[in-house]
Amino acid sequence: MMGDRDQACGLLRQALGIADADFRPGQWEAIDALVNRREKLLVVQRTGWGKSSVYFIATRILRDRGSGPTLIVSPLLALMRNQIEAADRLRIKALTVNSTNRKEWPALMQAILNDEADALLISPERLANDEFVQHVLLPVAGRIGLLVVDEVHCISDWGHDFRPDYRRLVNVLKHMPENMPVLGTTATANNRVLEDVQDQLGGIQIQRGPLMRESLVLQTLRLPDQSARLAWLVEHIPELPGTGIVYTLTRRDADQVADWLVRNGIEAKAYYSDVESPEFPDSDAYRRHLEDLLRDNRIKALVATTALGMGYDKPDLGFVVHYQAPGSIITYYQQVGRAGRAIDRAFGVLLSGREDEEIHEFFRGSAFPGEGQVNAILELLAGSDGLNERQIERSVNLRKGQIEKVLTFLSVDSPSPVIRDAGLWKRTPVEYRMDIEHIQRLTRQRVVEWLEVQDYIDSRECLMVFLARVLDDENPRPCGKCAQCLGRPVVAEAYSHASAVEAARFLRQSELPLECRRQVAKDAFPQYGFSGNLPENLRAETGRVLSRWGDAGWGQFVADDKHAGRFREELVCALAEMIRDRWKPDPMPTWVTCVPSLSRPHLVPDLAQRLAVLLGLPFVAAVTKVQTNEPQKLQQNRFRQCANLDGVFKITDDVLPGPVLLVDDMVNSTWTMTVVAALLRQAGAGPVLPVALATTSARD
Amino acid sequence: MSINNQTQAVLLLTTYFGKPMKDEPKPLSPTEWGRLAHWLKGQKILPETLLQQDPADVMAGWVDRTITPGRIRHLLDRAGALGLAAEKWARAGLWVLTRADPAYPARLKKRLGNDSPPVLFGCGRRNLLNLGGIAIIGSRHASEQDLAFTSCLGSEVARQGLSVVSGGARGVDEAAMLGALEREGTAVGVLSDSLLRVATSAKYRKALMAKDLVLVSPFNPDAGFDVGNAMARNKYIYCLADAAIVIAASKERGGTWNGAVENLKKGWVPLWVKSHQDPASGNSELVKRGAQWLTDTEPSALSVRDLMEPEDQPDSGLPYVLALDSSVSDGSVEYRPESGSVNLPAADKEALDSQRGYDLFLHRLKQLTAEAPATPEQLKSSDVSGAQLRDWLKRAVSEGHVRKLSKPVRYQREPQQDLFDDTDSASAGHGVAKS
Ligand SMILES: [Zn+2]
Q1: Which among A216, A699, B295, B349 would be 20 to 30 A from B163, CA to CA?
Q2: Same domain, yes or no, for B73 and B120?
Q3: Which chain A residues have a beta carbon less than 8 Å from that of B208?
């Protein structure tokens, strides 16, 4: 009978390709519990301990006994190369089902039904997708022999990054009969998280190893200004060993930092959950490409949000630098703990800026949907047999993203007041009351965790001991190599004045492309008669926005001046400079006009006129507002935003035939620009080039 | 809360979790499960043991032509599919009952024995399943006139304090159930397909949430329409009721006809048919085979209680309501004095409540005698008169639920006739409903 230690050890040697390899502490015990006792087991071991050896060897043994394939639920998009090699050596055929290989799903399903696959890898998002479960997973799930869940700490409420997909996973695990062995793995969990996981899953055994990482050299540094941090990055990243990760809190920061590093000759790429590139069919494919680039050391750094890190296991990662401070020590450990796995020395530097606090406050405030939003959607669904997203959008004044958030939030409850079935959201006959207290408790907990990060940044004791203590690691001892142990920085804190000046200039030149809409909401424009795709000859060209509302470059000035009632000359000059020196639109505009407003009739025309003077072009007030409408910013979704503009603007006879610069102060959904541009084109204007001072679209 | 491990074992052995696949071993039929369950009981093996130990070892000594160890193993290996499916059922607020659950309808077990469904999926107020009522039967495609009659009939059954039992399909089923629900009566819908879809439909949602309605199905809640399932389902409608009324049957064909003929053959409940102009209709043929004409042309002239067998008629008693208190996390049944909020016209509640009263009494009696015999003193309750208590105890003894011991007088619980009924885990509600 397979399944004794010696034979399993033989498999380990085979998997690793090392003739005298032996199990690390805990590995055999985990395999034994899974294959011989069909237990449910949670292992807490640092990255690199070898959890994939455990589940591949368990898979091999179970398969040889006639069990079905292993289902691996992991946030990583594909097995890491070293895992694939290990699987190959054990003759384990592992399949991945993800959004990039949709066309292959039927063939992959067939392979599983034919008993040709030994392991199936899917993401938690897939598992939370009802259509996927119903049509792809359920038909093959009858044969699953072992269930593996990576990053299992995510199922805890107390986890730093509570994720709805994992919430769903908990419920699936809860309903797994006891003859299904389950392995959950994590490298970051303190006792509270473990207790929560144990509470939720019941009957799960826990195995814990030490989490300290000896090769890791830690340091913290407060640099309030973004320009200072950009300067620091550009001067010190080249000295850091090998390749690594720079973590930012938002996508926009990831883009901006990557852009800055590239401009300064450092090969870097931005990475976040739906990052895209025209060269790749979709975001998943591009992200896999980016993961490969870093893994193979073909770039110096990925500039990433938390989207990178879950399950990312690169043995020789040389550094992890935080451009902004993460929200909790557990998140920090998880991210920094990816470094220095199989090398002697790696760096973990946490920079902290002035904006961190505000960003985390935003994250906390927007983590849960509002009660009013929840009730609006439940009431709507209660009157129907089920609605799709588009129908919901037309009936409630909420953004698409808000609607999705409400539905996701509700549908992870069990029982849930809503369920997605046959492509429709349906109200179940389940009483519902939003648990405000629970939400408040979680929010308070996040504040406490954030304060703990502040303590870490200012810590005078060994930084590794600080982390280990928060993670409830047993007997942490001073590392002897961090900035606190040494009493001096491990990476110099200084940066040159020249770099800082350059970075400040960069921040002020970080304009964004302004893309107007191409497709309008159905039935929203009965007066203008727009419907479906806007014809090419009515669309606006790609324009520019100077800044983001309130940001570190121009955005703060825009916010201040809008309030004061007149935009300062510096902003007008910055616009002109951007248009002339950097954007250089093709064709060049021959005249300038602007979006009118009835409530503040002079603000924007004044801006547009002064800009026209600087550009040496005529200003023509060719657009008038003939109807008052509700403020566009109160319109939360596509249909409302379109319908609110129907019949509102009119083009005067003064319209000129040449290419025109269309000026507004603020853009959010870009519908106003889209509609005015289309009307201008209809009235005989040339190509419309939209330009604005700031975008107020939600932080992402 | 989650489904307990015994229910999981029964589900694995008897239920499809998705569309049936080619070459996939079929789940056990009700009769097959009955056979296996009987054997397991004889061996003193609980079904969940099959999940805890190697099924091959557990089943050593079992020989059966169709239920092979390979088939059992294959069915049990579907744990992953069950986990995924059960998560969805739970999320939708559905629950699951097996024959071992106290809430499992006693009428089904009594009338169908081993043929009663091993598993019932459901939604809404479970204990309506044990209250019987009037089955109203007819087709999806009924005439306007028949539908109007059916709707009045449903409403009248409600007014007279009984539940409507029907199939939950469009046409007659829907007219009968909505007729009762609009009158704030109660209804039981026995579905042959799409439990999940029907449970989330606007027309039944309010009644489900108001606990006036229970929908059940012996089939996977995601299963679509299937003629075989629809036929199999018909007998459960009759067996859950105390009397049945056929609105219109086509002679010699269709589900209504077949179900009615089956009921006549098996003698489950008295069968009544609506009088019909068309002499060629199946209704008169059913009368030839033993059904009775409904003589009253207007439902309001009808005394629905007279349609039942005399012994099934509820006698007068105390107002009790059996309630599943959602705050009780194990979903177990508890006594609760009637608060006056039951959704029945007050004047007609009494009769229904007396049956409930006895059912409740019986339930409490079983609980109180579970561990050791109980004295009449211990069984007393402030809500039950001494005379009533004596009557009910006598009835419970005659029905074989308890045995009377003397010197001193005590009542001892009889060993259960029902398989696994005594795994008091019981209680465990097995509902997927509340977390
Ligand atoms: Zn140290």
Answers
A1: B295
A2: no
A3: 429
Contact of A139 with chain B, judged by CB distance below 8 Å, is answered with yes
Give the model's pLDDT for residue A79.
67
| Judgement on whether residues B374 and B305 belong to the same structural domain of the protein | no
Chain A to chain B, count of Cβ pairs less than 8 Å apart?
Answer: 143
pLDDT above 90 as % of chain B? 53
The alpha-carbon gap from B396 to the nearest alpha carbon of chain A, in Å, equals 36
pLDDT at B197: 93
The predicted structure's pLDDT at residue B319: 30
Q: Is pLDDT at B322 greater than 80 in this prediction?
A: no
Number of domains within chain B: 3
Of B286, B305, B307, which Cα lies nearest the Cα of B295? B307
pLDDT digits (tens, 9 = 90+) for B65-104: 999 999 999 999 999 999 999 999 999 999 999 998 999 9
Q: Point out the residue among B18, B200, B326 whose CB comes nearest to the CB of A428.
A: B200
C-beta of residue B30 within 8 angstroms of C-beta of residue B117: yes
List the domain range (segments joined by +) for residue B36.
5-92
**Is B51 close to A177, i.e. CB distance below 8 A?**
yes
For chain B, say whether A411 makes contact (Cβ under 8 Å): yes
**All domains of chain A in start order, with CATH:** 5-208 (3.40.50.300), 216-360+453-500 (3.40.50.300), 371-433 (1.10.10.10), 509-695 (3.40.50.2020)
Cβ atoms of residues A396 and A384 within 8 Å:
no
Does the predicted interface ipTM exceed a cut of 0.95?
no
Query: What angle is formed at CA B161 by the lines to CA B156 and CA B163, rounded to 5 degrees?
Result: 80
From A349-353, A359-363, B127-131, B374-378, the region with the lowest mean pLDDT: B374-378
In a domain, B432, yes or no: no
pTM score of the predicted model: 0.74
Question: Which residues of chain B make contact with A179, given a CB cutoff of 8 A?
Answer: 50-52, 76, 79
Encoded tokens for B136: 């109203």
- Per-residue confidence (pLDDT) for residue B316, from 0 to 100: 34
| pLDDT at position B86 | 93
DSSP string, A587-640: SPPSEEEE---SSSTTHHHHHHHHHHHHHT--B---EEE-S----GGG--SHHH
Note whether B10 and B79 are same-domain residues.
Answer: yes
Instruction: Output the average pLDDT for chain A.
Output: 89
Instruction: For residue A376, give both structure tokens.
Output: 């609006």
Residue B141 CA to residue A321 CA, distance in Å, equals 70
